[in-house]
Amino acid sequence: MIKLIFISVLFLAFPVFAVSDGSGSGSWSFGGFFSEVEAFFQMIHHFIFEQIPLMFQRAVEYFYYYAILIKIKSLIFFMKVSFGVAALFLSDIGLASAMNSAVNALPQDMQALVSQLGLIRAINIVIEAYIARYVLQYML
Questions:
Q1: pLDDT under 70 in the chain at which residues?
Q2: Residue 54 placed within a domain
Q3: Per the domain annotation, does 129 fall within a domain?
Q4: Rounded to 5, what percent of the chain is helix, strand, coil?
Q5: In whole angstroms, what separates CA 27 from the centre of its chain?
Q6: Which residues pair with 20 in a beta bridge?
Q7: What is the pLDDT of residue 13?
Q8: The dihedral sign for the CA sequence 15, 21, 26, 27
Q9: Quick check: is 20 in a domain?
Q10: Does 86 map to a domain?
Q11: Can you give the pLDDT at residue 117?
Q12: Separation of alpha carbons 17 and 36, rounded Å
């Protein structure tokens, strides 16, 4: 019993013992004491049943946020690397020079049309995209 009294005195705030009845006389009342005790236990209940679950919810949200952020940043990095590998591969096989020599074999009016429309650059971009996709699938 002494331990219970000691623990209750230890955990209750000292202004609880100085609560007045509201009459301004400064006299002590049981109603004020019990309302302070009730407020104390409501605060504990609020902390245990609302704040702690909210803290775990926020921790899980932050975990998923950073996991998704890391995944997106790694995908962007792998896309840059795969595009670099694709560009290097295309320069090694000499696709642009082969297309330029094929266009030079065309008549002058067709060469002008291909040049105006930018077909060589468009075909080069599409082929780079396909090779980058292949490299990205290989990396992931």
A1: 9-31
A2: yes
A3: yes
A4: 85, 0, 15
A5: 57
A6: 28
A7: 56
A8: negative
A9: no
A10: yes
A11: 92
A12: 9
Domain limits for position 50: 27-139
DSSP H or E stretch at residue 82: helix 52-93
- Residue 78 and residue 31: Cα distance in Å, rounded? 69
Structure tokens at 106: 């065309």
Residues 6 or more apart whose CB falls under 8 angstroms from that of 33 comprise 16, 17, 19
* Token duo for residue 37: 């005790």
Per-residue pLDDT tens for 6-31? 777 666 655 555 555 555 555 556 66
Question: Per the structure block, which two tokens stand in for 76?
Answer: 């962007």
Q: At what angle do helices 119-139 and 108-117 cross, to 10 degrees?
A: 50
Residue located via tokens 């009016």: 109
Residue type at position 129: A
Domains of the chain: total: 1
